[in-house]
Amino acid sequence: MVNLEWFRTFKAIYETGTLTGAAESLYVSQPGVSLHLSSLESYVGYKLFDRTSRKMVSTERGKILYNYIQESLCKLEEAERHFHKSAEKEKPTISIGMCFETFQFTLESYLPSLEFNVIIKFGDYPQMLSDLDNGILDLIITPHKGDYKGLVYTPFFKERIVVIGGSKTSTEELDPLLKSKDLNGIQDWLKRQTWYGTTGDMEHLRRFWHINFGKRPDFKPNYIVPNMSSIIRCLSGGNGVAVIPDFLSKKELDSGNVKQIWEGYNVIENTLYFGTRKKTMYMEEVKQIQEIFLKEMVSDQDQEAIILN
Predict the structure, then answer these.
(1) Which residue in 281, 305, 304, 296 sits closest to 139, CA to CA?
(2) Fewer CB atoms near the end CB (10 Å): N or C, the chain?
(3) How many whole angstroms separate alpha carbon 229 and alpha carbon 301?
(4) DSSP tag of 90
(5) What are the per-10-residue average pLDDT scores of the chain (309 residues)?
């Protein structure tokens, strides 16, 4: 008999595109995800994905299966969410969408202190916007705004995409190059460094390189790690560089374990928004979550400006 969890795992792999992404969204181990997928493929008798070095690409049969089960699984997950509410003696439950690193660096440590239940969902931003509009999510943290008329976007933070390095990374050769704006020299220095990256953050490196040097990077990171949190831990107190959003390394920067190497001559900034529905029954709970983000990411003066707006 087929196990329903196999279908949930298949759906997560299809939507995230990787085994790692599916494992993070389901809060299970990657070997567990692989086992579910192989069990389902054995059950149906054909391959559901073609494995590449970077992504799980759905086969035609996989696409058919996804279209067949997706709506039913969403309804089951929604029923599960509502049942969870009633099982907790009417304790409110809100669902929040954001990227994994944003959750880990802001909200994760606060969860035990909240007086309501929280469901965290990781995924791509277009899907989060759709889920918010459909009532599956109650709040999203997003750098993108959609065209949904029933949604409201409140800007609360600007993140900068910068080059950071471990505290032992020497910039003695780089400093005069930056002062003289020697782009060729800066580029050569950066390429000689030990680079860290993730599959998910390569876009940051490509965008930074293109905006500041007018071309794509012609090198690959020395080390590919699971997520940006891993990058910061690897760099902390050591040697090497990476391109990441500056706020993710704030605590390590303040402690001196990493340092900002260069923000570029053409600074890249992304505005982060609170995405909510115009009407929600969880206004107080959403407000508490927003206050946590403001506390962790925004200065007191900027918080007042956001609240006034």
Answers:
(1) 281
(2) N
(3) 28
(4) T
(5) 83 90 84 88 90 87 89 80 58 89 90 93 89 92 90 93 95 95 96 89 87 92 89 93 90 92 93 92 93 81 42
